[in-house]
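Researcher: Going back to the complex we discussed earlier. I've cleaned up the inputs and rechecked each line, so this should be the final set. Can you rerun the prediction on the complete assembly and write out the structure?
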Amino acid sequence: MIFTKTIYIETEKKGDIINLTHKIESIVQESKINDGIVHVFAPHATAVFALTELESNLREDIKKLLEDVAPEVGWKHGANAFSHLRSMLLPPDKTLPVRNGRVIRGTWQDLFFIEADTSGRLRKIELTIIGE
Amino acid sequence: MIFTKTIYIETEKKGDIINLTHKIESIVQESKINDGIVHVFAPHATAVFALTELESNLREDIKKLLEDVAPEVGWKHGANAFSHLRSMLLPPDKTLPVRNGRVIRGTWQDLFFIEADTSGRLRKIELTIIGE
Amino acid sequence: MIFTKTIYIETEKKGDIINLTHKIESIVQESKINDGIVHVFAPHATAVFALTELESNLREDIKKLLEDVAPEVGWKHGANAFSHLRSMLLPPDKTLPVRNGRVIRGTWQDLFFIEADTSGRLRKIELTIIGE
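Model: Rerun complete. Updated structure for the full complex:
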């Protein structure tokens, strides 16, 4: 069985972090699929998905890590080179297991979107739930 | 067809590497699924999966790389900030193809767990095999 | 429904980038699967997949990023340690949604192979399309 859903989120500025966990959990429940996987994907070349804790100090650490690994300046490809590079390292493509109609994740494991482009924008997210 | 299985592994200390390849291969055989995919996932916000060669010198290189990219110290979020950052960069979420009842992988491609937290612990791994 | 296909590509030298987008799109159309996912996987421990824009300046930036994050020299495991480390950070494992018989991706989102080993070689890619 396949259940698909498209959702939209709006980011306000560069670096915005949006927690998608509860939205994904409620769509998985809506799907009535008990066991399988949920695939979450953003069709955007400057978007990032991450899966870990989302505590306020750690948010600052995540921003620092992105700047350490792929700094904003020093690239050949225009102003948003870093956006593409971050989306390459942390791609907007994540799969989680589904059991008994619920998403399996760790207590501190949240799935969140990071706006890696130079400003906020409307972002599309495609969910595919496959199972029985 | 969906086949699911939960396994547990125990790490002894920070940085422990546990090769999961043979365990995953035997569960795929147990599933009787011939063609499809196997999704392997650890519901832990400080866990890492990696897929490449697992030779003893390369183990040292992997530890150095993790320290280069996300060092143990210098973060705002307590003692295990680096654990979360490493789990973000190398998430515990991997999908491999299944053909003729066997996992497809390269000769030197092993799937292994890296204990990214500050000490050893009991870790859960969820396998979902989807196919025919 | 499951549709599988094996393709081969040949790289000529280290760092070669091969755009797989159109090949994957045509195999998804061939599969006659309307809604689901396509999983793309290279069974090679020194191969990289990336998903973002593939513009000529950005190609240079991508090469610089790989060298910044996992430099060619300075490792214990022989001449291709960097190849394994890059394949670990950017694994050859990618999943995209399929809707109405087409791959969903962003306008600037191309899926490409990067030859991370020390020279060109013949590379295998396994596609698994799951859906209805």
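Model: Worth noting: DSSP finds three helices and eight strands in chain C.
Researcher: Good, that matches what I expected from the previous run.
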